[in-house]
From TrEMBL, chains A, B:
Alphabetical keyword list: Transferase
Gene3D superfamilies membership: 1.20.1050.10, Glutaredoxin (3.40.30.10)
Name the UniProt record assigns to this protein: glutathione transferase
Boundaries of every GST N-terminal domain copy: 1-73
PANTHER family: GLUTATHIONE S-TRANSFERASE (PTHR11260:SF770), GLUTATHIONE S-TRANSFERASE, GST, SUPERFAMILY, GST DOMAIN CONTAINING (PTHR11260)
Keyword Transferase: yes
Length: 222, 222
């Protein structure tokens, strides 16, 4: 699942920390025994297998990597407890709030719900913008925990713009986020692992077509 | 908001770590300037104010306390990175999965949805049961991060049983969880801060009546 933003987070963390690994692609239509046994609760990617132990959930994996490989590459979480708490706060905000508003904006039941999702995601982006005030990255001068959390969506931001003509981060309303997407995506460690935008465009178009077909079938009562 | 399970988590963490604090009650119908300015994003309790800095979101506060007061009382998160990842995994599971199934079971739109929520929450409790295998607490011999996450609901488990006659943790299906609720609630540090069950019963009955009235009004098209 190269297209998964959650898989991309783990790849980004590995890349920024300069760690080598073996990547195993998973077919979610026909999940492997390895996936089902290594993540029996959620049965989802990504899963990190390290020293024979399985770690699940993208941001939990990122924290694990940061703790186990504390000496490798830059620390993703800051040393100061308050700054750590703030990093966890914004990473959770991305998952709990921003992401769900994006889903509503693109997968809402009708145009009204989608419009509501777009408004909500714009308001949420404005909140998140505050966390970038006066610094190039959420982590400060360097990429940190929140950059990885949002970075998983960096390639998708461009793909969505190509498919729908919609900028997830409006340069007029959230200029810092709009600039961040470009700045983050230009980093060598990000370029090394972020998927090709055109591939995501194809994935996105296919999903939209499937979603439209399902909605049409539901409307016909099939 | 003494009745909030999220507030109770923070009080539990403070109690188990033996930390003293000033508790300020908040009226959520008329939120104070302090709350609105200290948690401008979510505008929710709990908020921890420490050294003039505001930390929000219950489990982020618990981690903050564990890091800042590493020398005070027992550590809530284990030292081993894999064990830490597992503790974070189950704490997130309680918030993302178990809690939302409970909400559906009690606040579902109709009886069908409520029944679905009850089945789901039973299945999720069975998953969580595995994390208690062969140990008295999620943290092992002592209370840890996951015990605090679930412990915030310990008094509510009893209140719900009194109101609805429903055991959230069925002794037949999830005996370890059923025993854990009793074991956890009997600890001095928990008893010191968990709210009185009868008070929660009154809160729960009032909310149910409000919810029923709102549903009846909606059904009449008001």
């Amino acid at each position: 699942m190269l297209s998964s933003p959650f898989v991309q987070r783990v790849k980004l963390a590995l890349s920024f920390k300069g760690l080598s690994y073996e990547y195993v692609e998973e077919n979610l239509q026909n999940k492997s025994h390895v996936l089902l046994s290594s993540n029996p609760v959620h049965k989802k990617v990504p899963v990190l297998i390290h020293n024979g132990k399985c770690i699940c959930e993208s941001m939990i994996i990122v924290q694990y990597l940061d703790e186990v490989f504390a000496g490798a590459g830059p620390s993703l979480l800051p040393a100061d407890p308050y700054e750590r708490a703030m990093a966890r706060f914004w990473a959770a905000y991305i998952d709990d709030k921003l992401l769900s508003s994006w889903m509503t904006a693109f997968r809402g039941k009708n145009d009204e719900e989608k419009e509501e999702g777009r408004k909500l995601s714009a308001a949420m982006a404005e909140n998140l913008e505050e966390a970038l005030r006066n610094k190039p990255f959420f982590g400060g001068d360097n990429v940190g925990f929140v950059d990885i959390a949002l970075g998983g969506f960096a390639a998708w931001v461009h793909a969505v713009e190509k498919i729908y003509g919609i900028k997830k981060f409006d340069a007029a309303k959230t200029p810092l986020l709009a600039a961040w997407v470009e700045r983050f995506g230009a980093l060598d460690a990000a370029k090394a692992v972020l998927p090709d935008v055109d591939v995501l465009v194809e994935v996105g178009k296919r999903r939209q077509a499937e979603s439209d077909a399902a909605a049409a079938a539901a409307a016909q009562g099939n």
